[in-house]
Amino acid sequence: MSTDDTSQISDSATTTGGGPTRADRVRQVTVLIGAVVAIAGAAVGSGAAGGQAIQDAAGGALAADATVLAPDSPAFSIWSVIYAGLAVFAVYQALPAQATNDRLRSVSWWVLASMLLNAAWIGVIQGGWLWLSVVVIALLVAVLAVILVRLVRIPASGWFESLVTDGTVGLYLGWASVATLADVAATLTAEDIGTSADASIWGVVVLGAGTALAIAYAIFAAPRPTVAIAIGLAMAWGIGWISAGRFNGPLIDETVAVAAAVAAAVALVAPLVTVGMRRRG
């Protein structure tokens, strides 16, 4: 490991000349406090600290066996990793040495917005407003996509920043993308749009769209391997648990299970291929 790598936590390679401005300090403090509030609110709202769990809200529309695209329950454990990454990011961006880091200037407000939208989505689901939940989670994915564009455009200052920022955002975006598919399916099912007879068909179609999205992410994010691979891991994780839920459990659908297994494999392999091709090129 080089000296630059070991010292990057305190020294940013992407900084603007001069000292930190008042706006920098306001951003750092606001994002730190906002992250604490958003993460705590999300934990309480999701039932992690007591109360109604998400899978029981909205009449059980998001339960593991509610639709053919519902991930099995263990899939949601990824949130603990994402929340931990967001907490570390909030502390990291607040360090005095990072005040003039142009990359963090570019994404920190957007990361805070994503956390607030996630907390809002949980509140909407708890209120039983499924169509509104689709709008909110779509906005969440859009915000995370903006962050992805900025992370690809501006290089990280070193491995630690890449791990904290790219790794966290990648997992967050990948999982939110899969959750969007599940949320749409839950909403359509709750509104009786589609029947059990064609559930396998639209399930495979939606999984196809998810696979195409995973490939698109892999191609676009290839210049930043950490974020590209993290997106692929999260999407493979979420879709893989859709497959597991359809192979075993109350709602068995082998057609969707096989399609999900293939989609998960593509999501996992695609970033490895695109990153490898870019390095060879």
Automatic annotation (TrEMBL):
Region annotation Disordered: where it falls in the sequence: 1-22
Keyword Transmembrane: yes
Gene3D superfamilies, A to Z: TspO/MBR protein
Transmembrane segments: 31-54, 74-95, 107-124, 130-149, 200-220, 227-244, 256-277
Compositional bias per record (Polar residues), positions renumbered to this chain: 1-15
Keyword list, A-Z: Membrane, Transmembrane, Transmembrane helix
PANTHER family (UniProt xref): SI:CH211-161H7.5-RELATED, XK-RELATED PROTEIN
Protein name: TspO and MBR related proteins
